[in-house]
Design goal:
Elements: H1 4-26, H2 30-47, H3 58-106
């Protein structure tokens, strides 16, 4: 099991990375965003099954709750920037596959 301070330190590290992810999303730096997300996923995976609130003091649980809330707020901000871009990609890929089906069915116009 993780030590109490180690668990809190991991949440602090995830929180710092999520703030960097917000900046990457705002800058449309998708490569950096993906890289940071991989780091967060690795840290998160290390917490799964090891995260034990009962070993934390009330003050540590409050700190953890605040860190998780900031992470969730950052996630909402990241989605605000990535979802419009993802929709454009979906439309582009959807339009391309529709165009390809039409060309296969009716032949190319070029």
């Amino acid at each position: 099991m993780l030590l109490m301070t180690s668990q809190i330190d991991t949440y602090k590290e995830i929180c710092a990375l999520s703030a960097q992810m917000v900046e990457a999303a705002r800058a449309n730096d998708w490569a950096q965003l993906v890289n940071l997300e991989r780091n967060v996923a690795s840290l998160r995976d290390g917490l799964i099954g090891e995260d034990d609130n009962m070993s934390l003091s009330l003050q540590e649980r409050d700190l953890k709750r605040g860190l998780i809330q900031r992470i969730l707020d950052d996630d909402a901000e990241i989605r605000r920037h990535t979802e419009p871009w993802m929709e454009q990609v979906r439309r582009f890929l959807g339009g391309r596959s529709t165009r390809e089906r039409v060309e296969r069915t009716y032949g190319s116009s070029t």
